[in-house]
Amino acid sequence: MAGILSGKTALVTGASSGIGRGAAVALAEAGAQVALVARRGERLKDLAAQIEAAGGKALARVADVTDEADVSGAVEDTVGHFGGLDILVNAAGMTQTGKVENGNLDDWRYVFELNFWASLYTSRAAIPALKAGGGDIVNISSTAGRRAVGPTFGPYAASKFALTAFNESLRAEVTLAGIRVCIIEPGATATEIHEHIKDEKVREFTRNHVEKDGAMQPEDVAAAIVFAVSLPPRVNVSQLVIRPTVDARVL
Q1: Which of 5, 79, 247, 251 is 20 to 30 A (C-alpha) from 106?
Q2: How high is the pLDDT of residue 144?
Q3: Residue positions annotated with a catalytic role
């Protein structure tokens, strides 16, 4: 595909669904060759076939982004297959409920593994390749990383707040190497994020929130990603908040 990102290589985590899938499609449509990383291999193969049928180039790479060695291998395979890496999009994520006093700490740990540590692992592995020609790291957060809502979503909000701090620290670290770092914080977006919530009432509440009339679609967030990585190298959009128009004042 010809486009503003022609000649670029992108790696997208969480590419089997939601914002990750939307990002992979949008980056390919903009001309980038895309490495698709997630655990659900069949979905990745279907998406790679879709991208290639439209004239793009894609690599499906099954990996568990909470496993540092697996992540490093995925980055190495991407560089080996495409000859380099220019864009990293950390879109893998999930939510789970839990209170501090009596919540399941294993749930807290796993939310942090996927929402925070995975982005650190992929960024750490990708930096050497990105330094070769400059590039972009885009971390997908949430408006919940700006304001924690109630006691129920503590693990999710805390992990996203941590991701914001990590993003700014990383930007300061790699900016002189020509690597831009951006965090995108979407509001309600129609994804599968509610599906793994254990509490049935909270799961239904979350589903209604992300699927309500006027909620954003994954392709809306993907458009913001393409915007951020398509700007001239002298411009770094370090933080971008996007919300549904119908409820722009709330999460």
Answers
A1: 251
A2: 78
A3: 156
